[in-house]
Amino acid sequence: MKPLLEARALTKHYEQGTISVAAVDSVSFSLRAGETALIIGPSGSGKSTLLSMLGCILRPTSGAILLAGREVSGLSDRDLPRIRRRCFGFVFQSFHLFPFLTARENVETALRLRKVPAASRLRQSIDLLEDCGLEERMEFYPASLSGGEKQRVAIARALAGDPFILLADEPTASLDSANGDMIFKMLRGFAQQKGKAVVMASHDPKARDFADSVYSLTDGRIAALNA
Amino acid sequence: MIWLATRLAFHNRARLIVTLFGVVFSTYLTLTETALYIGMMENATSIIRHTGADLWVASKGVQNFDFAKPFPDDRLKRLQARNDLLWARPISLSWGFLKLPDGAQELVEIIGYDPAQPVGGPWEMASGTAADVGGGAKMIVDESAEQRLGELLIGGSWEVNDRPLKLVGLSRGARTFTTAPIVFTSYALAQEMTPDISRRAAAAYITIKLRNPADAERVASSLRRELKENEILTTRAFVDRTILYWTLQTGMGAAFCLTALLGLVVGAGTIGQTVFANTMEHLGEFATLKAMGASPGDLNTIILAQAAIDAAVGFAIAAPLALLSRAPLEKMGVTLAISPWLLLGLFCVTLLTALAAAYFSIRRVQKLDPATIFRS
Questions:
Q1: What is the pTM of this model?
Q2: CB proximity A110 to B under 8 Å
């Protein structure tokens, strides 16, 4: 079985005056359907840069990203949004929900971006929120939701449109321990039950319990801890 | 994405109300200024447009309808002898004073026409007919003059240039640019009433109807050769010349244009500022959308739709307000010419201005790096 996501010698350099700094330096790893990978590392180690590149948001300086065996890092700026829409779901540390939309509408936004017809949009968003245990909170605005609920809405939104890779950046950093566990469990569950590949970047030591493979990123260089 | 734009636009109600206040004010200003200008130009050219003539014979250098220099009307016979003309009719125009019941004098524009073939006379009557001015010292006054002259009773007598005239009819919609009331009378009487004897047997204009209106340019060229002391104009050219005179020579056009433009700029500024403030406030959401795979087209649609919503709602409030202002302004003698075409045209201009005002927001979002979402 081909990996769903593969990074080959992924490198990102930033110019700081005359000096070139490597934020990510020749990172290679792969991930299959149903697997959850955890990237750990101190602040500034390049985790966010790596996730941005894996999610086709940031172009690598060199190296390649393959999605289901297809090289995508060289695609045009016009094609990359389409790849992100189709292939990725994103979960962020600060949730980044739309404050002027209800939980259901937040999920619907992702479906609208994917041009899902109105009839199935409502059904799908309700189903996703129910899967995340939010059946009672669908018509609530983010301001009325707890941190854990907000992150569950964000996960439901990330799952909308059935992407095959979930990228989660510090998904539990703004949550208490109980909610953090719930979110990790949920991400791992979706990977296993729905056959998604999940990449998490986290400081949370508990995250290791929910990952199939753990990578350490230090000064942009990756090392597999238990892959 | 228009759905998202609508939610975004209506999310901050206070900001929306402030924006709408600015847009309504500026749109109202633009709309009324434009309607006022068109109304004035319609008044200035109303008689020209309602004669049904194809060509006009005027004195050389005529600049607008109201300031005519009379010329001998014996040319009428020469014109009537031509085969290519269906008819030729004289119109006289002079200025006089109408004595009010309290003894005060009101400046009036006296238009004389042939009552048997009333070209140049009133085209719409509130009372009586255009032919009623024939056979005696009779006149028709426009009903809009009532506020200047007092109650206009049919059969009443008024002194014009010290000559008593019987009011036999009331016209409707006949106004001048100068707002001086129009007194319609017979061509013969108008000539008698002219204080300047040298101007008797003189016409201000001769109007011509062609057998074949498509021949207008050819006949006009032929008439220019024949009547060298006169100017021959098509009706369209005379309308344009009159409009140009009042617009450019008086500086009125620049004043109206500047005010209308100012309205558009204020509206564009208000919308641009609001959309930009909304964009800056929601940069995080725009970055999220970008990360989620929103295309540049999706993001542009969200921003442009917000500007369009502000413009459309503002216009939807301003237009009825302008229409409501029409009746009270008419009573004050001010014509607001608000046609469906004007509303449509100004709506398009308002919309385009609003969309252009969203430019800086679009640029800001296009430059937005979605990777920032991972760092916040």
A1: 0.78
A2: yes
